[in-house]
């Protein structure tokens, strides 16, 4: 795998203002993504995982500038996307495509598949006009559909087939990067496996780069080279797949992995139960954002924000944002909270 | 399950929807047992008839749907023989259900307290004061912080995880003998799912309930169930104890599902998807419903529907391969333990 950095995100922030009062002034912000940095190399798959609302989709949207980021830089192929004007950005989109969870919502219901694909190619002006017909047939075949499907409308397809159309559309402009936002989450496992295999095949054939957003850790383990774990708008851990799954360092990653039900009745589960729910991103907890639920939290965690860092025993590129990684690893720092009881009746921060 | 007494025995249940496009056989001859005190999992892909099976048990099917036939024996009594009035006494009392979408089954205009009290009023004739006392006990039981305060809150004021706990509290209010949980955690994050599943298991032990756990997640099945019924196109295709199902699956569909599943607990070389898609109701195959997607299908499979047969050890399979009539490769190996890069 080449080590060329295709995408370089630095100190990215995406705040959504909350308006209030009679003047509609900004009274507060949803800090959906709050100062994150990472890189994605050409030809690799980097997954973004974390629970609902942690900022995965917002990250994807900010990179493609579907929202306008509050702060930071997004370098793609050496160009800072946040400096581009609309027209320049539109050109750039040829190289950066997105596949959504719900292909139905992203496909025009009044356009046949042929029209959808033709339009995508016309906007980006990628294939000479007279060759577009052949290209459409080729694309459909690539994603496992039949030529006669070209003249059908989105509602005439199953969910899995629609997802293939979404993929065909993304591929039609010959992109470098595809952001897959829960691209297979709505599919039944038998169909999900078909689509995952397709994505892997295209990656190999076209040297595609994926930013793969998902909450399904089985899928993530299958498809990723590296994994980013997010919690409440921050990256809490990043590393190669093996490190994240076999040697997780952040207490949140550990709890998340331990919570996944494994399809093996003999699997021995040492489950870490977290208390309560994820707090609101409007007034996120001070210090380490995980401290309200973390089994290892101390006073220090309430005050000091931990930065992403590595420890000597961790693999290259593996970083976690916890004050106590080494001490937890060595056993010197023990849990400060009960982690095995699901009925603690502890007071949790009120939901907003 | 000859050694184990069953609390629920469903036999050849059939429920259809009569739509403009014709009859949709949503549940098409479903048979399974729920051994007392145990958890039966019902798995299958979207549209396979899991929810309609559950709603048929409680007779919550409304127009244009109709239960066409079969038997639903609860404690030996066929529920399909009961009047609506008698059914009402059973629902929420002896058999309770947690629904797939919590927001549709919690009434948004009533407080949590009002909704739980209602159940005590209907089934036990309790007044407001006694009802509230019991409601607080239930909320405590399911681990809801400051239960007294929650009584006056509306469903929308609660987080997803709390709402699901309230649903469980409501379902368990009258200490049912059987709990039917339809995808109780599908809408929740995995850390919250872990809490809720553990909670159901603990409550089951404390109250001695039997549970029907409906899910499409094979991980949830492996973790929470004792027995499993795998459904495909409105029919049960395999019924086995949970260990047998995962260690020695026999139906080609079950095997296909397991081979399609990306695992979080180990590295996997590749996924082997099931080819094709689930047939739509208007093009339902006449033979084995799985034949068009099955790697082993013969002409027999395409022409004749196999029945759900006992294959020993309490296991049942609906597949020609396990019958004397099988006309394909006699040494066919449906399941071979997969190659993994790591144990
Ligand atoms: N346009 C918006 N205006 C206000 N808040 C928003 C907006 N978009 C997202 N948010 C908020 O930002 C936070 C992050 O949302 P995001 O959609 O990125 O989460 P996610 O990780 O993709 O979650 P999911 O797994 O549910 O898709 C959430 O609290 C969400 O409510
Ligand atoms: N009101 C209705 N009218 C017509 N068909 C219906 C109706 N309700 C359900 N069906 C059909 O019955 C079949 C079984 O539906 P059911 O809801 O039981 O599936 P399920 O296995 O629970 O799926 P899921 O995993 O998506 O919840 C489906 O084909 C569905 O389209
Ligand atoms: S009966 Fe035939 S088609 Fe059906 S599952 Fe068995 S082998 Fe496959
Ligand atoms: Mg999202
Ligand atoms: Mg359902």
UniProtKB/TrEMBL annotation, chain A:
Residues 331-352 are annotated as: Disordered. CDD domains: ABC_NikE_OppD_transporters. Coiled coil: none annotated. One of its GO terms (molecular function) is ATP binding. One of its GO terms (biological process) is transmembrane transport. PROSITE patterns: ABC_TRANSPORTER_1, ABC_TRANSPORTER_2. The keyword ATP-binding applies. The keyword Iron-sulfur does not apply. Residues 7-257 form the ABC transporter domain. It comes from the Bacteria. It holds the Pfam family oligo_HPY. Keywords: ATP-binding, Nucleotide-binding, Transport. Belongs to the ABC transporter superfamily. This is Dipeptide ABC transporter ATP-binding protein. It comes from Allobacillus saliphilus.
UniProtKB/TrEMBL annotation, chain B:
Keywords: ATP-binding, Cell membrane, Membrane, Nucleotide-binding, Transport. GO terms for molecular function: ATP binding; ATP hydrolysis activity. Residues 8-258 form the ABC transporter domain. It is a peripheral membrane protein. It comes from the Bacteria. GO terms for cellular component: plasma membrane. NCBIfam families: oligo_HPY. Belongs to the ABC transporter superfamily. This is ABC transporter ATP-binding protein. It comes from Allobacillus salarius.
């Amino acid at each position: 795998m080449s080590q060329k950095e295709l995408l370089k995100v630095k100190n990215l922030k995406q705040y959504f203002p909350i308006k209030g009062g009679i003047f509609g002034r900004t009274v507060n912000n949803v800090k959906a993504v709050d100062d994150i940095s990472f890189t994605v190399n050409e030809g690799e798959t980097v997954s973004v995982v974390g629970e609902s609302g942690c900022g995965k989709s917002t990250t994807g949207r900010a990179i493609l500038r579907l929202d306008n980021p509050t702060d930071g830089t997004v370098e793609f192929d050496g160009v800072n996307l946040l400096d581009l004007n609309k027209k320049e950005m539109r050109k750039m989109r040829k190289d950066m495509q997105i596949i959504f969870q719900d292909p139905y919502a992203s496909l025009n219901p009044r356009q046949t598949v042929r029209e959808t694909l033709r339009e995508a190619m016309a906007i980006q002006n990628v294939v000479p006009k007279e060759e577009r017909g052949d290209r459409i047939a080729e694309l459909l075949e690539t994603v496992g559909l039949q030529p006669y499907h070209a003249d059908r409308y989105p509602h005439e397809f199953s969910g899995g087939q629609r997802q293939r159309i979404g993929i065909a559309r993304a591929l039609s402009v010959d992109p470098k990067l595809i952001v897959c936002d829960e691209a297979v989450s709505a599919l039944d496992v038998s169909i999900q496996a078909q689509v995952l295999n397709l994505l892997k095949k295209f990656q190999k054939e076209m040297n595609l780069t994926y930013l793969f957003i998902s909450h399904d850790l089985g899928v993530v383990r299958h498809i990723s080279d590296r994994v980013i774990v997010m919690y409440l708008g921050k990256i809490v851990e990043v590393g190669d797949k093996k490190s994240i799954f076999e040697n997780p360092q952040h207490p949140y990653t550990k709890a998340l992995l331990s919570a996944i039900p494994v399809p093996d009745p003999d699997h021995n589960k040492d489950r870490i139960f977290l208390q309560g729910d994820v707090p609101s991103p409007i007034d996120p907890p001070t210090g380490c954002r995980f401290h309200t639920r973390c089994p290892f939290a101390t006073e220090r965690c309430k005050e000091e924000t931990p930065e992403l860092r590595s420890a000597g025993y961790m693999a290259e590129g593996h970083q976690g944002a916890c004050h106590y990684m080494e001490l937890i690893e060595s056993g010197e720092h023990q849990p400060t909270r009960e982690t095995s009881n699901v009925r603690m009746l502890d007071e949790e921060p009120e939901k907003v | 399950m000859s050694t184990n007494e069953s609390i629920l025995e469903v036999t050849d249940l059939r429920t259809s929807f009569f739509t403009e496009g014709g009859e949709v056989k949503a549940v098409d001859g479903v048979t399974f047992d729920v051994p007392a005190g145990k958890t039966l999992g019902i798995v299958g892909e979207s549209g396979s008839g899991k929810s309609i099976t559950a709603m048929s048990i409680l007779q919550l099917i409304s127009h244009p749907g109709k239960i066409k036939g079969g038997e639903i024996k609860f404690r030996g009594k066929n529920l399909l023989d009961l009047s609506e009035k008698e059914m009402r006494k059973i629902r929420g009392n002896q058999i309770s259900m947690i629904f797939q979408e919590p927001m549709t089954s919690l009434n948004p205009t009533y407080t949590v307290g009002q909704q739980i009290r209602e159940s005590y009023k209907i089934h036990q004739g309790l007044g407001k004061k006694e009802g509230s006392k019991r409601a607080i006990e239930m909320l405590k039981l399911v681990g809801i912080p400051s239960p007294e305060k929650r009584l006056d809150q509306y469903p929308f004021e609660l987080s997803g995880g709390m709402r699901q706990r309230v649903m469980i509290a409501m379902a368990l209010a009258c200490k049912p003998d059987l709990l039917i949980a339809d995808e109780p955690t599908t809408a929740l994050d995995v850390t919250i799912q872990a809490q809720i599943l553990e909670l159901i298991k603990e409550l089951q032990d404390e109250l001695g309930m039997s549970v029907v756990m409906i899910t499409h997640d094979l991980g949830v099945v492996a973790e929470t169930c004792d027995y499993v019924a795998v459904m495909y196109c409105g029919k049960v295709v395999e019924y086995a104890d949970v260990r047998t199902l995962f260690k020695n699956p026999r139906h080609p569909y079950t095997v296909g599902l397991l081979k399609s599943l990306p695992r979080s607990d180990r590295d996997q070389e590749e996924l082997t998807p099931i080819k094709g898609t689930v047939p739509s109701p208007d093009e339902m195959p006449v033979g084995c419903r799985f034949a068009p997607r099955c790697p082993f299908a013969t002409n027999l499979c395409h022409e004749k529907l196999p029945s759900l047969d006992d294959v020993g050890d309490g296991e049942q399979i609906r597949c020609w391969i396990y019958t004397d009539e099988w006309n394909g490769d006699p040494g066919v190996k449906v399941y071979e333990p997969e190659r993994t890069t790591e144990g």
